[in-house]
Amino acid sequence: MRSLLFLFFFNVFNCFCQNLLINGNFESYTSCPSTQAQLNRASPWYNPTTNTPDYFNECSTGSIDMVDVPQNMWGNQLARSGIGYAGVASYYFSANGREYISQQLNSPLVSGINYYLEFYVSLADTSSDATDGMGAYISQNAVDNPENFYLPYIPQIRQPDGVAITDKIGWTKISGFYSASGGEKYITIGNFYPDSLTTIVPSDPTGQWTAYYYIDDVLLIPDSLVSVYKDVRAHPVILQEGKQLSIRLQKSTIGHLKIYQLDGKLIREEEINGSGNVHLEYYSTGI
Is the pLDDT of residue 12 over 70? Predict the structure, then answer.
């Protein structure tokens, strides 16, 4: 009997429908990216400086895999979810040079309410170095810099001081809670510290002179919803042909099921209300 090999997960809707960010998983685009510096195609994300953050998607129309997923000009990395992600330099050869991504929230934050923010980063394969300092700054007004240097703001959520993010295989979560003053409408992600205050750890002496991080799955919600937020994942499993995968959620819980092959290709997506079965006979035999 031949088997099917899947990597699968599902996200519970209760939380994601309340995400104050639009396109936090970088799946939506105005048009497929074809080369570097096209973050604006993952609208409403935009570039707040004159530097060149990137947008990567499996639908890339460019040649030589510059901004494709999983293989691109910075290395090989599957999206944490879906088929797209962004990328920024947290440090590189130009003194205090930085890249950031920003967007306007879909509604202002409310004074006195606590919010939970999380996002995931992964160090790109060709990075010569790794850094700490990656964080998020939430503000009432849009931040910008007419040059390509670091933005001198204090991020409310950030990677702990001195802990460089060195993982090039998986995704590292950066998260925390924020008490709103009221009226905050923008979020910016990147390294907000100058070289002198950034921990820089060598990663690959043959790599490009930079610390470059992919970014995926940015989530901002009221902290009252944290208890209902669930991200259930499974390690790759072998499922026998002719069998079925049963899923049981809590009563009245609506889930979003996605099934991926190990090459990152999405092969099934559907809503699960309470429970559901995946009938494997509908798929061709695999590995």
Answer: no
